[in-house]
Amino acid sequence: MSEPADRVAPRLLGATIMHGSVGVRLTEVEAYLGIDDPASHAARGPTPRSSVMFGPPGHMYVYLSYGIHRCVNVVCSPDGTASAVLLRAGQIVCGVDEVRSRRGAVPARRLASGPGNLGSALGADLTDWGAALTVCAMGSPIEPATEGLVNDPPHPDGHDRLGTDQSTPDGVTHHDCPPRWRLIPASEPVRYRTGPRVGISRNADAPLRFWIDGDPTVSGRR
Question: Which residue ranges run through the membrane (predicted)?
Answer without folding.
Answer: none
